[in-house]
Amino acid sequence: MTAIGEQDPERLILDAADQLFASRGVQNVTMAEIRDAAGVSMRRLYQTVGKKPELVARWLDDRDQRWLVRFDRSVNQHIADGATPIDAVFEVLKHVIASENYRGCAFLRTLYELPTLPSPIRDEIIAHKKAFADTINLHVGRKDLILLIDGAITHSVLNRSVAPLEQARQLVNQLPTDKDNPR
After folding, report:
1. Distance of CA 72 to CAs 15, 77, 78, 88, Å?
2. Which domains does the chain have, with CATH numbers?
């Protein structure tokens, strides 16, 4: 517990890691840089988050929780404003990707950057992708859309355009629903 006016060291560290990892990648950031950005001692850094693989896993877990809450809230707001669930999901994703500093899914970037992932990091990436698929399923009733969405996000980043997301939305609208295709 922290005193009033005192910042939580873990929050400071995770926020610093988020900013640095998002802008430069996991491998290109040292623990000393995170320490400096967070304004904590090296001892406090290691006491709070452990070694770098543990920090990366904690960062991904924190990012997953915060991102999914924002995503879900934004999709629900679009639906409340009259959008269909599918359109709401894609509009939120287009907004995220169109932001000036978006560099792609942090989870996929970490996966690509660290070809031999330590287990805690791999577990966080798998958990995020499952939770994201579950969230999409909750809104549109199609868990398999994560495959199309991840591909569209990747191509949107590569092309610096939301056009692949728009193409993905059009494809989704052409797919049969589960009602049309009983199993």
Report:
1. 21, 9, 10, 10
2. 1-50 (1.10.10.60), 52-174 (1.10.357)
